[in-house]
Design brief:
heterodimer, A: mainly alpha, ABC transporter involved in vitamin B12 uptake, BtuC, two-stranded antiparallel ribbon, 79% helix, globular, B: mainly alpha, 15 helices
């Protein structure tokens, strides 16, 4: 029997890994805010599917949520293509409306179920070990650990299969198009992966931590290296660290775990921002001094 | 119907609340015009999320839930967050969207930590900090409205005083530099005003959806005109309409959070403008494209006949 503390940390680590993997490519495509949009708007899909099935554990909820994630991306593109709204406004308009639909449905029709708006937004990983996975009467561990591991495997498969395509279309979309990679397929493929990851993660850690894990460790790694492989590796390590350190800090101070994980990742970003070898504040200051003395 | 309308004006609490959401709509509409035109639409999203730790820390330090205290906390953190974003973009290779994502999620995460500290205190339920997440207009008191009114009033007066400078900042900052205006300071001032507009809306709409109040009315106003003054006036009007009707609906329906209703109404106004606005709107574009097509065909026919 594994202790609940260990289980929570295991879930935190697996969730962080899945999020940072998907987040790395999102960030490189300058679509960091898409993680915010998707992690909010999937609520509408979950709420509508719940109205239809009346069962919070139905797999239809996940399908509907993934679809809503893609609908978000699609609607943003439609609005952008009218040339009447800029892309960031389109993102802001679409996800806030979808999220509002979700919140209204939940607060009107799903008051008494485990589908609380606060829980959706904030997440509480501390409760994750209570939802167990049983086969017959055998307790196989927390359910979310299985879900997140499956998602992590999907992410690893997706990225290792399409590494080349993702890399080229992130750094040189023009070249990718010339070489014959359909930008649409790569784009929507990545968005599907992001949506699925966001759904799995937001059930355990809440939608804002999804943003924290998808954006902060990859960008911290981005400050520390220029190589994509190292960036993925470093952001995975940082993700694991923020999972474990965040949990330990939360346990020590008795505060919100997901909030503490986000805070730890923020502190690590701040450190990298200051001491990063080539681009940090200290390095920039040294450069400045060098130029000053030599002139 | 008339009886219903009369009952609104006789209901003191509702009148207070409606006044509050009207003020919020006007302020966020007008200042949203500037964020929209400067392509900083999602700035509001980051700033409003970042205000959360400010609210919680202000409560922890003073143990008071008076609006002046809580909103000052929100103002300070909102402002610090906008500075952080400026810093990240200026001193690293990270782009604007990445800076938004980092600041938003880290500040909000820190806010959650602080909120969980608050919730451990005895009597913290009365503080009602949770209403800041999704907004609850029904709980607005006279005190709240006065604070909101004063803050937005100041913000709007400053906006009108510096109208020309802001206009220059939006459309042609380089020209501003060359004629010797302190464009950096003007930029910081405008950001401060936007932070004020966001903070005043937090109690009504909530931190999660406040960004929509900056984007939707301004995007709706943009469709009807090419003039900044008219666009700002329209945005203020659309903001006020969505604020007031949203609050009415949510206060008359049980279990209905205010923020989401207001957001959906403002989105509906935006969608209507996108479709039906003259000249820029989608339908009028289709009609003019069709007309062009017809005249082209007619011209072609006459040319061929010759």
């Amino acid at each position: 029997m594994i202790s609940p503390q260990f289980e929570i940390q295991l879930i935190a680590v697996v969730t962080s890994l899945a999020c940072t993997l998907a987040g790395t490519f999102l960030v490189l495509r300058k679509m960091a805010m898409m993680s915010d949009a998707i992690s909010h708007s999937i609520l509408a899909g979950i709420a509508i599917a719940f109205l239809y099935t009346k069962d919070i554990h139905s797999p239809l909820l996940i399908v509907a949520a993934t679809a809503t994630g893609l609908v978000t991306v699609f609607l943003v593109e439609i609005l952008k293509n009218t040339n009447l709204v800029s892309e960031d406004s389109a993102i802001g308009l679409v996800f806030t409306s979808l999220f509002s639909v979700g919140v209204i449905i939940i607060s009107k029709y799903a008051r008494n179920v485990h589908l609380d708006t606060d829980a959706v937004l904030l997440g509480e990983i501390a409760f994750a070990p209570f939802r167990r996975f049983y086969i017959g009467n055998i307790d196989l561990g927390p359910k979310s650990l299985y879900i997140m591991t499956a998602i992590l495997i999907v992410n690893i498969l997706f990225i290792s299969l399409f590494y080349k395509e993702l890399k080229i279309s992130a750094f040189d979309p023009g070249l990718a198009f010339v070489l014959g990679f359909s930008p649409g397929i790569v784009h929507y493929g990545l968005m599907t992966v992001v949506s699925i990851t966001a759904i799995g993660a937001f059930d355990t850690v809440g939608s804002i931590l999804v943003v924290a894990l998808m954006v902060v460790p990859p960008l911290t790694a981005y400050l520390l290296t220029d190589k994509l492989k190292f960036m993925i590796l470093i952001s995975a390590i940082l993700g694991i660290l923020s999972g474990i350190l965040g949990y330990q800090a939360a346990h020590l101070l008795d505060v919100s775990i997901s909030g503490s994980m986000a805070t730890v990742s923020g502190i690590m970003f701040f450190l990298a921002f200051i001491i990063s070898p080539q681009k940090g504040i200290i390095a920039a200051f040294r450069q400045y001094k060098k130029v000053k003395t030599s002139s | 119907m008339i009886g219903y309308l009369l009952s609104i004006f006789q209901d003191y609490t509702l009148r207070t609340v409606l006044l509050g959401s009207g003020i919020l709509g006007i302020t966020s509409g007008i200042l949203g015009t500037f964020t929209l035109l400067r392509k900083q639409s999602l700035l509001g999203d980051a700033v409003s999320h970042s205000a959360l730790p400010g609210i919680a820390i202000a409560f922890l330090l003073t143990k008071s839930s008076s609006p002046v205290v809580l909103l000052s906390g929100a103002l300070i953190f909102g402002w610090v967050s906008s500075l952080c974003m400026m810093f990240i973009v200026k001193y690293s290779k990270i782009k604007y969207d990445g800076a938004l994502g980092i600041v938003l999620s880290v500040f909000f995460g820190f806010g959650l930590v602080m909120l969980s500290v608050v919730q451990k205190l005895p009597n913290s339920r009365q503080a009602g900090l949770n209403k800041f997440l999704f907004g609850q207009a029904a709980t607005l008191l006279k005190e709240d409205i006065i604070t909101m009114g004063i803050l937005s009033g100041i913000a709007l007066i400053i906006t009108f005083v510096f109208w020309k400078e802001f206009k220059l900042l939006v459309f042609n900052p380089e020209f501003g530099y060359t004629i010797g205006l302190p464009m950096k300071k003007i930029d910081i001032l405008l950001t401060c005003l936007i932070v004020v507009a966001i903070v005043t809306g937090l109690q009504t709409v909530g931190v999660v959806l406040m960004s929509a109040m900056l984007i939707a009315p301004a995007s709706a106003g943009r469709q009807w005109t090419d003039r900044l003054e008219i666009m700002a006036a329209l945005a203020g009007f659309f903001g006020a309409v969505s604020g007031i009707t949203g609050t009415l609906i949510s206060s008359k329906t049980p279990n209905m959070p205010t923020g989401p209703v207001i957001v959906l109404i403002s989105f509906a106004l935006f969608a209507f403008s996108l479709l039906f606005a003259p000249k820029r709107g989608i339908i009028s574009r289709l009609i003019s494209a069709h007309k062009n097509n017809l005249t082209f065909k007619n011209n072609l026919k006459t040319t061929i006949r010759r």
